[in-house]
Amino acid sequence: MTRHFLTGEELDSAELLALIDRALGLKAAPYSSDVLARRTVALIFQKPSTRTRVSFEAGIAELGGHPMVLRTEDLQLTRGESVRDTAYVLSRHVAAIGIRTGPDALARELAEHADVPVINMLTAEHHPCQALADLMTLKEAFGRLEGLTLAYLGDGNNVARSLALVGSRAGVEVRIASPPEFALAPPYGGAVLTDDPQEAVSGADAVYTDVWVSMSDDPESASERRRALGPYRLDDALLDLAAPGAIALHCLPAHPGEEITGDVLYGERQRIWDQAENRRHAQKALLELLVAPAELATPGAASATLGS
Question: Which of 3, 22, 191, 270 has its CA 20 to 30 A from that of 204?
Fold first, then answer.
């Protein structure tokens, strides 16, 4: 039965923790798996990307596979071909499909009709692959996940939601501090929501931030967003309120001087560049889980979610 990864909630706690451990193993031995040998993975990019594209392409190659990058202009979707028909065609040629797009409904529709695993590489409401890399980075830094506290500062966006949903399944307490007008909308799992950045950061093991103005935001609202989010800037003074040995995280791209200071971004207390690298290893572990050897989906098989 075909399994998909769209929100991260498809993984139960045991499966998630095992995936993180496998990702650490793959980081230690990058060429130890050839699960994608002589296989192709389609990567649909309807949004610009640096880390997602680089990490998926490099990871698929390390697993012995071929990454087929498909931009919007490469597909007949731009000429009115349906998502359903696109799913049918791709399923006849590739072992898995990744999609980085805007509407979550598009990713869900693709998964509904695909006979191969569909991976959400980013949508407006979810960024679960980023959350896997974040958990891997925490495990790498602290040797555990259970009982850790992560504070997220800023806009309640797709990254915040994925941290909340996936983090709770790993035993991580997630606190999200946002101005009321940019608070995270449900679902947000067991996350603690507040408008006080100091309250969120107090005693936290990791402090996380993201850009204030993203590629999907209206440019006309940028100045208002910067004004409202100013008190949520991650600087040394705020990081000092966290637990001893706390680390700074950022999913990138960063804008030093806005959501994070240059001193924190390039300082000794961050694990941001490890976090960026860990996208590759976590996604390799995910691909192993979804695309098992000799288990290509049968045409016409019913789709399901991971763990079903």
Answer: 22
